[in-house]
Amino acid sequence: MKDKVKEQLRDRGVELQDIADIVHTLQIAYYPDLLMSTCLDAIDAVLEKREVQYAVLTGIALDMAAEQGNLPEPILGTVQIDEPLYGVDEILAMAITNIYGTIGITSFGYLDKMKIGIIGTLDSSKEQVNTFLDDLVAAIASASAAKIAHAKETGLV
Amino acid sequence: MKDKVKEQLRDRGVELQDIADIVHTLQIAYYPDLLMSTCLDAIDAVLEKREVQYAVLTGIALDMAAEQGNLPEPILGTVQIDEPLYGVDEILAMAITNIYGTIGITSFGYLDKMKIGIIGTLDSSKEQVNTFLDDLVAAIASASAAKIAHAKETGLV
Amino acid sequence: MKDKVKEQLRDRGVELQDIADIVHTLQIAYYPDLLMSTCLDAIDAVLEKREVQYAVLTGIALDMAAEQGNLPEPILGTVQIDEPLYGVDEILAMAITNIYGTIGITSFGYLDKMKIGIIGTLDSSKEQVNTFLDDLVAAIASASAAKIAHAKETGLV
Amino acid sequence: MKDKVKEQLRDRGVELQDIADIVHTLQIAYYPDLLMSTCLDAIDAVLEKREVQYAVLTGIALDMAAEQGNLPEPILGTVQIDEPLYGVDEILAMAITNIYGTIGITSFGYLDKMKIGIIGTLDSSKEQVNTFLDDLVAAIASASAAKIAHAKETGLV
Ligand SMILES: [Ca+2]
Ligand SMILES: [Ca+2]
Ligand SMILES: [Ca+2]
Ligand SMILES: [Ca+2]
């Protein structure tokens, strides 16, 4: 199922390298010798988790259904325009962020607000509905950063 | 939007009275003079919340899309058979339960396990996909029970 | 730190075997060949997680501080009598339950309501304040059960 | 109990006006005519919630116990130095943020990272342990901002 998740991310315009760039930006201040390959490994470990896979696949399915008009109203319009009070995207994202503990929440909120890297690109896309995808990418990046922090602090990396 | 939520619940086979029965069952041991109308009022207050409305509408939309084969694989099969490790339904449900604080979590888990009342009916339905709906109903009942507990303990009812 | 957690659990009256008994009770219906040693291994893996260790140590510290009168009012009395609306114990517990995804939430709520095994003993103790400990034990058991379900379903055990 | 919460916030160096400044900074870009009094009213409504009151009182009690050396090791040292992997402060904060739905999470993470206003002052204090307090203030501000957004979007303000 992990391959399916990577494939669907790519189909929606997200390369793992795009996420690794964000993770590197988040953590380089704390670990100046952080390698890009460590970021990619962390993302791979996050995408290994079943809970993460299901959240990503469900979110992308909702984005695509909204794009194709395949949802009943009023949820169709809500997802299509990413209505400000709609928080189900953040709910799914937090299920990912929580996998490595709550320290990932801080990065998630920061990324969601600052729209760094690919997150900004997704957010301003006019070709796709990315209501869920931008939050999912921010969540995968935050969980990966949390995993690196855990490994570094407990001496495993 | 609240009317739309009530309408979609009814269309999927859930009457507010069914939920009130569960709330009454949950709380009668603590408040022997609990009226059914108090349960219905609490449910109405819960359904007033935007976060609850969005969670319910999104979950029902996913159940219906799965029913109609309108989701990409592998998430389609996952939702159709309510795969044991799939937890996105619980994630949406917890967003409802948390509205009145974490005391609702206990009732939610209990209801989800014991499949009381309409929850059991939904769970064993062979005509509809109810992967999300059973958890949503358990969550609405738990949040309503939490609301009643808050009102009783703080002397508002 | 893991040894410290086990030591403090034991000091407060909880043996790992007590938790394993609960995990076994939860999962035997799904996996009839489930060994007690598998349950103990799962608990060990859960207690390896830093997030779990911190939640347990913080909760036990609050129970002990309440016992010794070492908290300011009104939180002292609130923790001492496990006030019905106090939900911080459930909040800490959910941080544990979420480590293996939201499927653990159902068992947690069930255990918290049914007070199975050592959870019931803790809940009715008159010698100790166990406001946090009963929920922490229910959470460790639920997370361990979720870990077993993940391993079984993905073919790792 | 609300008066006790306000009193303890003030005793630890946090005025409601400090929190209102943060809320105003967060929301002025979206609602240019936002009054400071609307921010103060929203904070007041947030502090009315029992779940919020308990989270704040518990967090402050832990900060004070750590300050006075009144916790067992190793949690004492962990809270005193605000160890990077310690996430119980974020857990308590999220219980507050979730009260008005998950849209508050984004602001919370942003505030926690950028240390805006009083949050920065608390974070760099050398006189007090503020491991919990900085996150609690960020959470109250985020929940208040979410409340304002709900009121504005649903036409209630
Ligand atoms: Ca979004
Ligand atoms: Ca379900
Ligand atoms: Ca308890
Ligand atoms: Ca902190």
Automatic annotation (TrEMBL), chains A, B, C, D:
<dbReference type="InterPro" id="IPR007686">
    <property type="entry name" value="YutG/PgpA"/>
</dbReference>
<feature type="domain" description="YutG/PgpA">
    <location>
        <begin position="28"/>
        <end position="149"/>
    </location>
</feature>
<dbReference type="InterPro" id="IPR036681">
    <property type="entry name" value="PgpA-like_sf"/>
</dbReference>
<protein>
    <submittedName>
        <fullName>Phosphatidylglycerophosphatase A</fullName>
    </submittedName>
</protein>
<dbReference type="GO" id="GO:0008962">
    <property type="term" value="F:phosphatidylglycerophosphatase activity"/>
</dbReference>
<dbReference type="InterPro" id="IPR026038">
    <property type="entry name" value="Put_PGPase"/>
</dbReference>
<dbReference type="Pfam" id="PF04608">
    <property type="entry name" value="PgpA"/>
</dbReference>
<dbReference type="GO" id="GO:0006629">
    <property type="term" value="P:lipid metabolic process"/>
</dbReference>
